[in-house]
Amino acid sequence: MLDESCPIEEVREYFANDHFATEACGCRVVEAARGHAVCEFDIADIHRNATGNVMGGAIFTLADFALAIGCNMGEEPTVSVNNNIEYMSAAKGTKLIATCSVDKSGRALGFYTVDVVDDLGTPVAKMTATCFRR
C-alpha cells in the first residue's frame, strides 16, 4: 500500500480519501509507521449522542481509521475481518486519540490493538482486530 518511509503529508493525502472518517468525523493522522498509527479528532457536538457523551460509532470510527493506517503502512493491501471494541469510560476531555499497535503481523493475517484515550489520559476504549492481507 504505502511505503513505510513515505512522509506524513503523503499519508494524510492518501487517507483523506476515507471521506467518512476525515470529513464527517474530523479524524486526523498524527503518526504513521509500519504497524503503528496515531489519529485524533476534536470532540464536537456531531460526535455526541442524546445523553451528551461521545457516540460509540464515533469512537469506533476513530479506532478503525487508526487501524487502517497502522495495518497498511509498508504492507500489502489489508482489510479488517474481525473487530472487537470495549468501551471503558466516557471521554472527559476535548479530544480523542487512537493509537494502533501491531501485536503480530503475518503473511496473510495481522493482529492489532487500538487504544483510545482522551486528551486528559482517560482510557475510553480498546479495540482488537484481525486483518487479512490480499
Task: Explain what this protein looks like in three dimensions.
The termini are close together. The model has no long low-confidence stretch (mean pLDDT about 95). The protein is an alpha+beta fold and about 130 residues long. The protein is globular and about 45 Å long. The protein is built from 3 helices and 6 strands. Strands 1-2-4-5-6-3 form a 6-stranded antiparallel β-sheet.
Secondary structure topology:
Blueprint: H1 8-15, H2 19-24, E1 28-33, E2 36-42, H3 56-72, E3 78-87, E4 95-105, E5 109-118, E6 123-133
Antiparallel strand pairs: 1-2, 2-4, 3-6, 4-5, 5-6
Structural category is alpha+beta
For the biggest sheet, the summary is:
6 strands, antiparallel
Intertermini distance: 11 Å
| CATH fold descriptor | Thiol Ester Dehydrase, Chain A
The count of helical stretches stands at 3
* Number of discrete domains: 1
Oligomer status: single chain
The portion of residues assigned to helices is 10-25%
SSE ordering: HHEEHEEEE
Q: What do the pLDDT scores average to? A: 97
